[in-house]
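Hey L., structure's done. Input below.
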Amino acid sequence: MALASCLLLTACAAMLEAPRLAYQCPLGLSFEARLYQDMALLEGLRGHAVLERQTATGDENALYYADATVQAQFGLGVDQRLARLLYTGIPEPVYCARAPTTSGVPPIPVQAAERAGPRPPPPFNPDAPIRTNIRTGDGRNGPG
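Output:
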């Protein structure tokens, strides 16, 4: 019974997670993207980036995300297999294509997951009040 409940919780967590979309870029670069309603998580060989969702301008099918260093558009092209990355320090955009699947299964469509992205917890505040089970103020601490 405990094993079944662990498997069920793992399956529920996996259903909430956005699928990983693999992209290949020129010069042998590649990255994976997870798209959410409010953010995109990009992971590549040079690290990771968290991009906030932007309002759509132009192509209504494309998903727009950006931060201070890069703007990303997903779902471009006839079959929505292209991504366009525009870095602030590079004048030309970089176009990347979805990596082909090795199992022969059709690729997952490019769409944002139906939930908000995972946000890190707020930083620790040493001045925040601490909840305890110690009572103060009623004055009746002894027996009777």
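The longest strand covers residues 47-53. The chain has one helix and eight strands.

-- N.
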